[in-house]
Design brief:
The protein has five helices and no strands.
Length: 122
Amino acid sequence: MKLFLLLAVINGFIAVALGAFGAHGLEGRISEKALKTWEKAVTYQMFHTGALLAVGLLMMKTQSNLLSGSGWLFFIGILLFSGSLYIYAPTGIKALAMITPFGGLAFLIGWVLLGIAVTKII
């Protein structure tokens, strides 16, 4: 439980910092398309930071492998999805963009596991 809460706090901080960096440090240095890619990485990181927070809070109520699995998948999704986009946006290395869908898949499976866990908790 504490681990997912801590991961949420760290990822929230990083998302805000990278969002500010993108808005102030990258503007005019990379293309508009690349900047939109950066913003998408920030957005998905922040959404899934909220999901990590929810997992941590739910785990205060009950310990569940489904909750734990969803938390890890959200974290892996952040690393793969947002991480690959953070590197791809300023470099344009297309091989990195091929990693992004695996992060998206991790997010999707994480949401399914969270949904199943919630139905068992309530």
